[in-house]
Amino acid sequence: MNVKSTGLPARAGAIFCWAFLVWVLLTWTLTAEQLLFGAGVAAAVAIALAPLGNAAGPWLLLDPRRLAGAIWLLAVTAGRIARSNVRLAGRIWNPRRPLTSGMVIAATRERGAGGLTAVGLMTSVVVDNQLADLDPSRGQLQYHAVAVPDGGPDEVARGINVPAERLLRLLRPGRLQRQDRLQRPDRLSRQDRLSRPEKEGRQ
User: Fold this and answer.
1) For an engineered disulfide with 46, which of 12, 62, 138, 197 has Cβ 3.0 to 4.6 Å away?
2) Is residue 51 located within the same domain as residue 90?
3) Same domain, yes or no, for 128 and 162?
4) Are residues 46 and 91 in the same domain?
5) Residue range 163-185, pLDDT digits in tens
6) Residue 29 lies in a domain
7) Are residues 158 and 72 part of one domain?
8) How many Å apart are CA 13 and CA 1, to the nearest integer?
9) pLDDT of residue 173
10) Is there a single domain that holds both residue 14 and residue 90?
11) Is residue 111 part of a domain?
């Protein structure tokens, strides 16, 4: 998600909202004392982290397209979690399906801290894979996989992180979506498309 540069109060407000939400989810206690103490902790975290850089506020979800994308992202991720739990249970109960665990390298198009963090979280909540390390400069993610897939980094990515990266595009502005499409290796330029029939005709 592309976050425009904002002032210090706006960044602090965004961090406070997210930190307070995390506090509520972790404690799951809606007493006045818990909420007041959580608000104090969230405020301290916001003051400490706001000078470090921009933060996406929850008010960005007021955009209907982003809100619909976020709902779909949560639904698909929840479905993947359920399916992976069933598969893992099947491997445990059925001795004929042994665990072929190991470390794998997956390619990624994400380069920014926000995108890499989101992909790492979305893929690691699924028990099939756990993010162990990453190299943003080379576009690689290292996972511990319950069942090691076949193929190289590109083939591995199709089964691990590419679905998550596609979901993230639902939350991004159109400019970033066009940039991702332009980076696809199988995309031909206009000149290549026009010159291909001529080359084939000569052959």
Assistant:
1) 12
2) no
3) yes
4) no
5) 888 888 877 655 444 444 444 44
6) yes
7) yes
8) 18
9) 53
10) no
11) yes
- CA atoms of 162 and 199, how far apart (whole Å): 34
176: Cβ contacts below 8 Å, ≥ 6 apart: 2, 169
Q: What is the pLDDT of residues 114-157, one digit of tens each?
A: 788 889 888 888 888 889 999 998 999 999 988 888 888 999 99
The dihedral formed by the CA atoms of 167, 181, 1 and 158, expressed in degrees to the nearest 10: 40
Residue 143 · residue 159 · CB < 8 Å: no
45 and 18 housed in the same domain = yes
Indicate whether 30 and 80 sit together in one domain. Answer: no
Tokens 């980076």 map to which residue? 183
Q: How far apart are CA 27 and CA 35, in angstroms?
A: 10
Q: How confident is the model at residue 61 (pLDDT cuts 50, 70, 90)?
A: confident
The arrangement of strands across the sheet holding 129-135 comes to 102-107, 140-145, 129-135
Q: What angle do CA 188, 190, 196 make, to 5 degrees?
A: 70
The model's pTM is 0.60
State the number of CA atoms in the 13 A half-sphere of 36 facing the CB: 3
